[in-house]
Every structure is written in structure tokens, then in C-alpha cells.
């Protein structure tokens, strides 16, 4: 009990800065450029210190991922998320944070063409040839990406399901496992198509590029955002204002630890940071080039972070056709017939 009391007092006194070391730099990209970031928690307060000991471990994990994971997201959407979450963290209203991060954003149901009914994926009455519709709306979190993987894998294993339609309206999100999701879609034995309505940018663009067909719903739809930028933040002044003196001490045997950040902080040298960003950008760009069937050209706006309205994206071959959700479902359903016909020829 005494040990816990000391811990609690430390948390209250220093707003958890002694318990949760901050990542003192972050990478980011302003939309229409992809955002790869590791965000620091700069507003944890006494209220959070009190509430922290009462929340679920799962919520703590999600909070840590939210601030420390890498992202590919629209700039304004990330700041909107901060405006939603930070007041709750600061004031100790962690129930609202828990509710927000715990909300299920990926919805799944099965449908068949020309029928209004919907089925659960594990419904015993699921009709033969059903098409799974997975909604991918809003910010993509890593735990939602994993949920998408599970839904797709379940659809591939179900003989009654002919394929999947991804209903996409997303500005991007955490990039953890997005490459895994992209590979799962690309190598799927059943057709997976995307129905884009609104925006398909950054992390969403990454995995949607692997779809067998990409439908857009309106000329106002936006597609693209492949690129990276780094936002450097120094927290020396922040710690000083809180009365905390920070000195990092490294053993001689770990001289490369945090080298990129230290070079920028101490020498104003961003060489290593750019090298790391180039790795992410290269992986993203090469994936887009392969999936869209275009040659990688470093001067092409497609690979430099630009977004395109639907007409331009269609003309350049980044999407395939205008259509409705029903059109996407019909296209998936028809592929089994097309495949059977091709075998007969």
C-alpha cells in the first residue's frame, strides 16, 4: 500500500511524466500527404493521474498506440481526434476516452444482389454466393485493421461467400499492419473490391490499391496521398516550465540509441530522420506502383503526396469506374460466373 501511495503521489505531482516517458519527437504528414507520426502525450494532468488506476489495460494500450504509433492520416482529422481525446485525458474523464476508443468502427454484413435483406457472417441461413460488405469509415486504428484482417480471412474460409466489398470513406490512420492487410487483399483467392464514397487517402489508399476493382461514387471523391513529412518537436522548454530538469544519459555501448532525434536536437542534423522517412515512403510508393500497374517515377505527383478528384483518378487509372454499392456487389457476384466461363473456353 505504501509503495502504491508513493507512485500515486509521483503521478499527481508530475502529471505522470515520471511514469510515462514522452516520445519527444514525432513524424507527420499534412494531408494530402500521408502522416507517419509518433505523437507525444503533452497534456496528461492530475485528473488523468487519478483516473489512470481505474481504467482497463486495453484502454491504456489504445491510448499509448494513439499517441506513439505511426500514422498515415489527414492533418485536420488528427487534430480533430486530439480535440476529442485530450480534454478527457486532461480532466480525468477517462470514461469518455474509453468509450470513444472502444467503439467498433468496422461493421460487417453479408448481402446478395437485388435483395434488401442483410445477414450476419455466421448466420446459418446465409445464402450461397453472398457478398460481405465491410465498412471502413473514419480514422483507421491498428486494432480496426486487425479486425478487417479477421473479417476478410473469415470470408475467404466461408464457402457460401463469393467475395468482399470494402465500403471506404477514410482519411487514413495508424499504419501498423496496413502492409499486412494490403498483402491479404492482394493475394485473396476471392475478389475484393473497394467502393469509395468521400475520401480514400493515406493508409486507406495504401490497402485499397490492392483491390481487384475500385469504384468511386461522386466527382467529389478524393483519392491518393502517398508521401511523408516529419514534424520535429523539442520538449526542453515544456519540461522546464513544469520544473523538471531532463538529462539523457547513454552508456558508451549504446551510442546509436535515439541517434536520429539526438542529431536533430543537438546538431540540427536531420540526415537520419530523412533516411527513415525515405524507407516508409519507398515502401508506400512501390506498393502503389505495383498495385496500380504504373511505373514508379519520383517526379510523378502520384508518389509525391498529391490527391486527385475522381475524374482525374479515373482518367489516370487509379480507380476503375463510377458506380454504386450495388454495382460493386454485383461485380463481385459476377466474377464467379466469369471464372467458370473462362474455364469452359
From TrEMBL:
Domain of life (superkingdom): Bacteria
Read off the Pfam families from this record. Answer: Peptidase_S49 (PF01343)
Classification via SUPFAM superfamilies: ClpP/crotonase (SSF52096)
Tell me the InterPro entries matching this sequence: ClpP/crotonase-like_dom_sf (IPR029045), Peptidase_S49 (IPR002142), Protein_C (IPR033855)
Q: Which GO terms describe its molecular function?
A: peptidase activity
What are its GO biological-process terms? proteolysis
The record's family statement is: Belongs to the peptidase S49 family.
Name it. S49 family peptidase
Please name the source species.
Bacteroides fragilis
